[in-house]
Design brief:
alpha+beta, elongated
Length: 195
């Protein structure tokens, strides 16, 4: 009887072992499968974003250049700014505009800017370009001209385009002067150089 009991006990242990292994294996697999997607969500933020690029900084006036204001009509100019480096940057918004003489850009007369179009971020790689169009109230007539409002026309040899926290002083590309009536200018939001 002792042998039978011992055999039965041994047999019970051996027969029960595979069942326990199956149950243990199923529970373990269930935990591993359940932890799979959760494990990704619980990664530290630094590990999750390791593949992402750092955000691009806004453009500053120190990295932007512009050569001149290109006339596109009697009272319009298009100004193209170029990212002169050292890194890519993002330009968004509208310029400020001021009239200036031949000297320091700090000595200027700010104009009221009427914004046109919706401002969107423009990514400028090194060498990338963005542009804005300025429209002045035109001076009418020949020679000295006149303003429809009766005000005296204003003439200036340069403008200061406020962009990226600083100013770029520009003259018209044709060597002339800026002539306008009033103290306002319409300016489009910056657009990519390719559009």
């Amino acid at each position: 009887m002792k042998g039978t009991t011992l055999k039965g006990t041994m047999h019970g242990r051996v027969a029960g072992a595979p069942t326990r292994w199956l149950v243990t294996g199923a529970v373990t697999c269930g935990l591993v499968l359940a932890a799979g997607p959760g494990a990704v969500a619980q990664q530290p933020a630094g590990q999750q974003s390791a593949g992402r690029q750092a955000p691009v900084a806004p453009c500053t006036s120190n990295q932007l250049i512009a050569n001149s204001a290109q006339r596109t009509g009697g009272s319009q100019v298009r100004i193209t700014v170029i990212n002169d480096g050292p890194k890519a940057c993002v330009l968004k918004g509208y310029p400020t505009v001021a009239l200036a003489g031949q000297g320091s850009p700090d000595r200027n007369k700010p104009l009221i800017v009427v914004r046109q179009g919706q401002a969107r971020p423009v990514l400028l790689p090194v060498g990338g370009q963005a542009w804005t169009r300025l429209t002045f109230t035109p001076v009418l007539g020949e020679a000295d001209g006149y303003c429809a409002s009766g005000a005296e026309p204003t003439v200036a040899p340069s403008i200061v385009l406020g962009v990226g926290g600083g100013g770029l002083q520009l003259a018209p590309d044709d060597g002339g002067e800026f002539a306008l009536c009033g103290t306002t200018v319409r300016a489009t939001a910056f657009r990519s150089g390719s559009s």
